[in-house]
Design brief:
By secondary structure, this protein is of the alpha/beta class. Helix content is 46%, strand content 20%.
C-alpha cells in the first residue's frame, strides 16, 4: 500500500540546497529513508521523536538510540530540552553524536535546540512528518522552546545537515494537523508569490483531499520561497522577518485560545492584512480579495483577540524599546517589514475589536 501511495505522490525526488555563512542544509523533497542512509553516521545516532510518530513510523527508524517525548506544545520547554540533554549524556553521547529529529514541528524545534546546545553543538538533521514542518518548521535552521505562554522566546539558529520530506507521511495526519500546515503553506504564497496564492485558492478542495501530485508541487514551491529568503538572511536581521507574517497576532491567538499554530496563523494573517490597510500600506481592495478568498476555503477561524493582546505582544522577541517589527502587505504576494510603536498597535487593536463587535452584533 505504501508503495502505491509513493507512486501516486512523486516519480522523482527533488533536492533544494540552503548554503549560507551560518551553515549548509540539503532539503530532500519527495524522498524516503533510502535517500538519506548515506548521510547518517554508522554509529552514534540518537533519534528524538514523540510517541505518536514512534507508533506510526518506528519501524522505519534507522539504527540508533531513541529518545521519546510527549506529543504537542507541552514538550517545547527548557525542562524537556534539559532532560533530553541529560538522557543523551547518560546514553554516552559525545561530541561526535548525531541527532535525528523524526517528527513534526515540535520535534524539529526541540531536537534542533538540543543539538545546538548539547556539548556546545552536535550534528543534526530532520525527518519531517507533518505538512507544517515540511513547509516551514524544519526548514531554515530556527530552533526554539516556549517560556510559559511566550512562543519560541528561547532558541538558536543552527542549520540541519539535511531535511527529509517524505510526503507519503502526510496521509496519516489528522484533519486538524493538516489544516494547521495549510496555514503556513498559504502564508508563504501571501508574502512572496501571488500566483501561488491563486493556485492554492483554486485548488483548496483537492489539497484538503490530499491530492498527492498537487500537494507535492505546492510544498516544493513554498519551500523554495523560504529557502531563497533564508539564503539571503540566515539570522533574521532583515528580509527573513517577512516569514513571520501572521505570527504577531497568531501567536497570541495560539496561546490564549489554545488552537493549533497554523490555524492561528491564518487568522493572524487576516488581522495583519487589516493592519496593513489601517496603516496605509495596502489598498482595501487587496484586503477584501484576501479576506473573501480565505473565507471561501472554510479554513479561517474567528477567535476574539484577548484584551491584553498589546501587553503580550510587547514581550514578543521582535519587540524592543516600545516598538515592534511588524510584517505588513503592500499587496498579496508582496510583504514589507515596518516598525510600529506599541501605542500605534494599541490604537489598531481597539479599532479592530470595535469593528468586530459591531459586525457580530
Amino acid at each position: 500500500m505504501i508503495y502505491l501511495i509513493r507512486l501516486l505522490f512523486f516519480a522523482t525526488m527533488e533536492q533544494i540546497r540552503i548554503n549560507t555563512t551560518e551553515g549548509r542544509s540539503l532539503l530532500i523533497m519527495a524522498g524516503d529513508m533510502s535517500d538519506v542512509g548515506d548521510l547518517l553516521p554508522a554509529t552514534g545516532l540518537f533519534i528524538i521523536t514523540d510517541s505518536n510518530v514512534r507508533r506510526l513510523y518506528g519501524g522505519s527508524f534507522p539504527p540508533g538510540e531513541v529518545l521519546e517525548i510527549e506529543p504537542g506544545e507541552k514538550s517545547k520547554t527548557l525542562t524537556v530540552a534539559g532532560d533530553l540533554c541529560r538522557r543523551l549524556l547518560e546514553a554516552g553521547a559525545d561530541r561526535s553524536a548525531f541527532i535525528l529529529g523524526f517528527g513534526g514541528g515540535v520535534v524539529c524545534d526541540v531536537a534542533g535546540m538540543v543539538a545546538s546546545i548539547y556539548m556546545r553543538g552536535v550534528r543534526h538533521a530532520f525527518v519531517s512528518t507533518t505538512l507544517l514542518s515540511q513547509v516551514d518548521a524544519s526548514i531554515g535552521g530556527k530552533t526554539g522552546v516556549n517560556l510559559g505562554d511566550y512562543k519560541n522566546i528561547i532558541g538558536t539558529f543552527r542549520q540541519p545537515e539535511f531535511v527529509l520530506c517524505d510526503h507519503t507521511m502526510l496521509s496519516t495526519l489528522t484533519e486538524e494537523e493538516f489544516r494547521s500546515g495549510m496555514g503556513e503553506l498559504v502564508k508563504h504564497s501571501v508574502i512572496r508569490d501571488r500566483n501561488l496564492f491563486f493556485d492554492i485558492m483554486a485548488s483548496v478542495d483537492r489539497i484538503l483531499e490530499r491530492d498527492p501530485a498537487l500537494l507535492g508541487d505546492f510544498i516544493s514551491r513554498a519551500v523554495k520561497i523560504k529557502a531563497a529568503v533564508v539564503r539571503r538572511d540566515p539570522l533574521e536581521k532583515g528580509i527573513r522577518r517577512i516569514l513571520n507574517f501572521g505570527h504577531t497576532f497568531g501567536h497570541v491567538l495560539e496561546t490564549s485560545c489554545r488552537i493549533p499554530h497554523g490555524v492561528a496563523v491564518i487568522q493572524g494573517m487576516l488581522i495583519a492584512a487589516e493592519l496593513s490597510v489601517w496603516t496605509g500600506e495596502m489598498p482595501h481592495s487587496e484586503f477584501r480579495m484576501l479576506e473573501v478568498a480565505l473565507a471561501e476555503t472554510g479554513m479561517v477561524p474567528d477567535y476574539e483577540l484577548p484584551a491584553n493582546v498589546v501587553n503580550l505582544i510587547s514581550r514578543d522577541k521582535k519587540s524592543q524599546a516600545g516598538s515592534l517589527n511588524v510584517v505588513l502587505l503592500r499587496s498579496v504576494g508582496r510583504a514589507v517589514v515596518r516598525r510600529l510603536s506599541l501605542t500605534e498597535l494599541a490604537a489598531f487593536v481597539n479599532y479592530y475589536r470595535e469593528r468586530k463587535r459591531i459586525v457580530n452584533q
